[in-house]
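From the pipeline queue, job 12 of 40. The input is one protein chain; the requested action is below.

Action: predict structure.
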Amino acid sequence: MNSHFAHAFHLGLKREIHALRCLLVLLWIVACMAACTTPAPVSPPPRPVKSDPIPPQPEPKPVHSNLATIAYTIQVGAFSSTERAARFALTLKEHGLDAYYFIDADGLYKVRFERFPSKETARRRAQELQSLGRIHGFYIVEPGLVRPKINPHAALRENIVRTAKRFIGTPYRWGGESAGRGFDCSGLTMTVYRLNGLDLPRNSRSQFRVGTPIRRAALRMGDLVFFSTSGRKRVSHVGVYTGHGKFIHAPGRGKRIRTSSMTNGYFSRRYMGARRYF
């Protein structure tokens, strides 16, 4: 009886030891799995580096001019020849509109007329003329003065010269008005300035009168240079100064718009002065 009890006791003890071992193995496995799935510690985010605040950008500076500016104007037509644009501009002038034609950057001749304080005012006027059959399609354009943040006057000067260069080689006749008399120098300078938002007067003497006198040594791109070519010792010719002693102008009947030198004997002897408008 005692031996049977001892055998049973030893057998139960072995089972308990085996179960304990199994439990310890299971706990070890669970511990290993937990260690594998525990995320690595996350480093704290770096502190933001303080930087100097960005200074506010200056507002674009307007160009100040002693000429009136053109806020909005009406543009019509797209012609392949000077003559057609000139005839259409002349037709508009006969109806009392201050029209002029020009060669655009795309090489086509277009017509603009009048100036308006707002886009809506210009649109109403264009629609009125459309209803009267004076014009068909139209655009309301804003010539505007350039307003870069740095050196706006220099930018405007470059734009004026760039505009004038588009006319080189063109048989320019002011708005059809002088189609039978040849080219018109002051119509060229007026158009170049108006395309850049400055309402320059029509004739050369008026242009000479409203500008600020500039010494020849102080000339800059975009200034206008004046000459007496009529033999009467008064202003009768004008061109756009392009720098380095050169200017663009409409020379006269039978000639195309070109660049000439102010040191040329003909123009040097007839030079009357220069004017600046901004």
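Job complete. Residues 72-276 form a domain with the endopeptidase fold (from Nostoc punctiforme) fold (CATH 3.90.1720.10).
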